[in-house]
Amino acid sequence: MIEGILIGLETALSLKNLLMVVMGCFFGTIIGMLPGLGPMTAIALMIPITYGFEPSTGLILMAGVYYGAIFGGSTSSILINAPGVPGTVATAFDGYPMAQQGKAGKALAIAAYSSFAGGTIAAIFLLFAAPSLSKVSLSFRSPDYFALMVLGLTAVSAFSSKGQFLKAMMMVILGLMLASVGQDSLSDITRFTFGNINLLDGISFVLVVMATFAMSEALTIILKGKDPSRATQQISFSKLGSIRLDKEERNKMLKTIPRASVIGFLVGVLPGAGATIASFLAYGMERNFVNEEEKQKFGKGSVHGLAAPETANNAACSGAFVPLLTLGIPGSGTTAVMLGALLGFGIQPGPRLYITHPEVFWSVIMSMYIGMVILLILNLPLIPYIARILAVPKNFLIPLILFFSVTGIYLMSFNNFDIFLMIGIAVFATFLRLYDFPMPPLILAFVLGGLMEENLRRSLLISNGSFNFLWDRPLTTAILGFTIAIVSWQIYKSFKKN
Amino acid sequence: MRISTVKIISLLFFILSAFYLYSAHQIRVFSFDENAPFNAKTFPIYLGYLGMFLSVLYIILPERTQLEVNHKVLDYKSSLFLVLITIIYGFVILKAGFFLSTSLFLFLSYYFLGERRWIWMFILSFPFVALFMFLLHGVLDIYLRDPLLKMLGIIG
């Protein structure tokens, strides 16, 4: 492991990669700050830039964007009560009241320190958890992988759909259908191309991500007439107040950060959970941990109430890398985008990643520490200036998002068909979003589609066409048991509410 | 009885799944693969059935809350315009080249979205695209196809 850490440090500390971490954190913070544009959009917009990079550099950039976006989201939550990403909704509960009390600087500082601490502690957990889990996952076989992917898709659908499990599952099927377009990986037989040669290689992952997130996000903002910059008119960026914390506030944070980090990391590791659930869970649990007097302050500008979700959401971001790096199975939409990008680089994450590509595996982990430090350095003194980004009018913002989306596809294929296909999917996705059909399950399914079919193929061939493979191995059965539990829980919840 | 839009979408999804299933059955596999436990059409067939099953389930189960979108407040005009201008952009980008088509696309989009700060509109279109091209082409060495600039001898 020491050797791996050194390889990782050497790669992460190269000038180019350091620059990528800074760039990633900076752009992630800016994009994450803009209400409506989350880490998935931020990462999707970065993909074209990573084309010319080595895999480790590309992944370092995307990881920087990821935690930068989560941090950026908290800035808009605190300043204008408009969370940039769902993972920072809980931040607004106490961050915004603090800002209204003239303590916006303090709130931002608490958010910055908590994010730093949460991210760093979770990166230490990741350092130990990832190699151990990689060793365990070497014993995984095709049926286990297939079951794990079914679990991941079910969990993402259950957690990302605000009680609309069936809608999310339909999106999963749609994602798998889109993934099946093109040549079959084993037999090279063309499927669902309808004679169009542009579809022979299948639909590009970047195209689907750009269409369902970046472009559809831009169209939704225009359609709903939302203007993220409007809310900024009510605040003065020059009067954020002091960012210094007193001893009492520091002590409160010191109590909250360790427990919120553990919760955040563990939730992040679970497939489908991620930063949003982690932050809400940490907020709720923190309320139970504190004394009665502190409990009364929750929702009115509590330091505990702000530090807990901020720590947890960043810790969850690091935790989400565990299934991605060790099993090759993303646990969330954002890590699914990263998996797609990695596959584009020709790298298959999984238990052997740290043996076959140690520089990728370790440099990502090492860059997380560096990223956290950079986020802190970048965000504390620059907050008043970075926050001005919130004032960018949508008249400029939307065309720029469309420009990045189209450019991403143009750079990839220099083909009109892909641009039109992206526009078509984006319009379709915008319409579905209006009716609360979630997009993360679709992306996850699209990325996992090929792998899932491959593992099902192997499992069925081994068991001679019988579905006995689902209960032949205790591990497969246990994973499927979890899946059944999630589905049953959704059915129970649905009946209870009806 | 009023049918909600989401149920209509589910019905459309049912039709899509049925069509997908039909197309899956039409996939021509190798003769030696026809009776194999798994061939190129096995997974799509499962997906087709699953899609139909889920959409039927949504259609027949009662909805907890009927989600209705107020179409009157939605700005379809601007959205449609943006989609159209992006389609046109997609058409001309290969012919007119990246620089000119992108700069014009950005400038016109700002204008039609109601922006009238000409200096900013200009800065965030022509010079911005030039800088972007320089970063991609010049610094990151990512190939950018631009027949117009190539003809003018600006890029190689």
Please describe what this structure looks like:
The complex is a heterodimer of chains A (498) and B (156). Chain A has 498 residues and is mainly alpha-helical. Helix content of chain A is 75%, strand content 1%. In chain A, helix 2 (15-33) runs parallel beside helix 4, helix 3 (39-50) crosses helix 8 (205-224) and helix 3 (39-50) runs parallel beside helix 14. The mean pLDDT of chain A is 83. With 156 residues, chain B is mainly α. Chain B folds into two domains: 5-68; 73-151, no CATH class. Chain B is 65% helix and 0% strand. Chain B contains seven helices and no strands. Chain B has helices spanning 5-26, 42-60, 76-96, 98-112, 118-123, 126-139, 147-151. The radius of gyration of chain B is 25 Å and the shape is flat. The mean pLDDT of chain B is 88. At the A-B interface, helix 7, helix 8, helix 17, helix 18 and helix 19 of A face helix 1, helix 2, helix 3 and helix 4 of B.
Topology:
The complex is a heterodimer of chains A (498) and B (156).
Chain A: H1 2-12, H2 15-33, H3 39-50, H4 55-80, H5 89-137, H6 142-160, H7 165-179, E1 182-183, E2 190-191, H8 205-224, H9 247-269, H10 275-289, H11 292-297, H12 303-319, H13 321-327, H14 333-344, H15 353-356, H16 358-386, H17 394-413, H18 416-434, H19 440-462, H20 469-472, H21 474-497
Antiparallel strand pairs in A: 1-2
Helix pairs in contact in A: 1-16, 2-3, 2-4, 2-16, 3-4, 3-8, 3-14, 3-17, 4-5, 4-12, 4-14, 4-16, 5-9, 5-12, 5-13, 5-16, 6-7, 6-19, 6-21, 7-19, 8-17, 8-18, 9-10, 9-12, 10-12, 14-19, 17-18
Chain B: H1 5-26, H2 42-60, H3 76-96, H4 98-112, H5 118-123, H6 126-139, H7 147-151
